[in-house]
Amino acid sequence: SDDFDSQLTPLHISPPNSTSTTTLSFNDYRLIKTRIRFIFSLSLYYKKFTNYEKSLNLLNIIQTTFLYFKHHPYSPTITPIYNLLLSKPFLNLKLLKLIADVHRKTNQYRTALQLYNEALDIIPIDDNRFKTHHNYKYIHGELTLAIGTTFKKLGNYPLSQKHYYYTEMIFKTMLHDTEKEIHPILLQFYILQADLNRKIGDFNTSLHLYQKVVNYITNVRNNNSNKGEEEEFMANEQMEALIGIVLSFKELGQINNALSAVNTAKIQYFKTFGTNSKTLKLGNILILESEIQYHLSQFLASLSTAKQAVECKQNLSGFDEYHLMALNFKKLGAYNKSKQYLLQTLSLTETQDSSSKKSKVLENLGDVLRKTKDFEASKNYYNLALNLNNEIYGENNVNNGNIYNGLGTLAKNTGDYDHGLNYYKTSLKNFNDKKMRAKSAEVLNLIAKLKRKQGRYDREDGGEYYSMKAMEILKEICGEESDHGELAESWNGLGQVYKNQMKYERAEECLKRGVEMSERCLGRSHPHVLNRMRNWADCFERWGKVEEARKVQEELKKRRRERSEELAKVEKF
Length: 573
Prior knowledge:
Elements: H1 2-5, H2 26-48, H3 52-71, H4 78-86, H5 89-105, H6 109-122, H7 128-132, H8 134-153, H9 157-174, H10 184-199, H11 203-222, H12 229-251, H13 255-273, H14 280-295, H15 299-313, H16 319-332, H17 335-349, H18 355-371, H19 375-393, H20 401-413, H21 417-430, H22 437-453, H23 463-478, H24 485-500, H25 504-522, H26 527-543, H27 546-572
């Protein structure tokens, strides 16, 4: 209760001096030990229910008490207590790891890393106890797993991958005698490994790992009536894997599969936690649903779902939610609204250890200001993001790719084609890993646009060459008929090349495919769809097919009206 909560304070004991003595009876010791264990359990409770501030306050109470004993070992009565509480490294390990976990949950990633490494230093790896003590090996694996996750949050994927490898080795060494394909202890590892694969663009591997976890947990839960902690753990890990499946399908451009997966996740959530339950996890699912609704052109529904997600997350709503709203407004073309939310999100990064998140906000501000033709401010934000990324990850890191794309487009829009091309080529170097091929295809489409602006349409080093190259990569990754936005752009780019070469039959076929594919993955009235319809109508006009051009133009006018009505509603949201 709150009444009892207010009484939880550090266990102060007056230090002995020349005029007074401190004596602690056996009952005093029992009281201190019991109270510490109770506060520790209570901090776990608050952490579980995402009240991280209270959890951290309670952990600090324990740490303050420990430090008192550590710095006052001279009393004959205090020393035995200090030895009992502090001489056991495992207790310190658990305390440090829990404090680090809370810091990580509140985005204090660098502080968390420091604490995790302090905890690793306590593990007696060279001691015989480590070789035989199951708990030491378990917490060793948990620590390397947590460090890998923290590096992933900071965007340092190589170090994240390295620590995930250590984790797998530790757990598999512990479980070498098991006959199970997957042990529950490895479920969290597989999910985090899948998360990392998804982050670096290896979506098929991530899907395989997520599905492996879901299938395993489904079988276990179907054959197990246990409703205790293990059942709760399984339910939570299953939800994490289902969310991962949604994200992987979304990244692959398979929006219908993503929608089906998010509906499965919602059904499973309500089945497990109840239809009236509104938690952080439901908030995360609703955010994904909001993003998918956007891709299906359900713009107002997307914003409404995002608002429900904020309500589910309550006082924990912050960076992710506001950033999502900003991105939705940006994609909707409501750039002033987007700018408003981005600036609000930027202010949140000032109070958190979240440099990698801050760089994304700066990058998106650069995009929004470029769209509103505030080119000087746009360039400043791009450069701030670039400098911050270089400070965090070093130069030539994958996080800089999108920033160089923005700078390249900015240079192209101001007629500086040489600098624009250099920025795009630098971006390609950032995406040179084979697992980042989808991103490299996006850059190739941007180069194709620039070449068309220069009047270069040829197959050698012109628009046709780069559009074809992007298309080849995307077909290999996503399939011939995949509804992927960049594949639609490749078709549109080829159509414009053939139109300018007066190859109208081929041009019309490509432009039509680009429009139809864009409609399926972006919606009827998305700006990209409207621009591609205009190109399609222009092709008919140049070809002399007046009636076909008129039909497309009439449809275009209708959709522009729809677009205006949608934007008016969005501005009032």
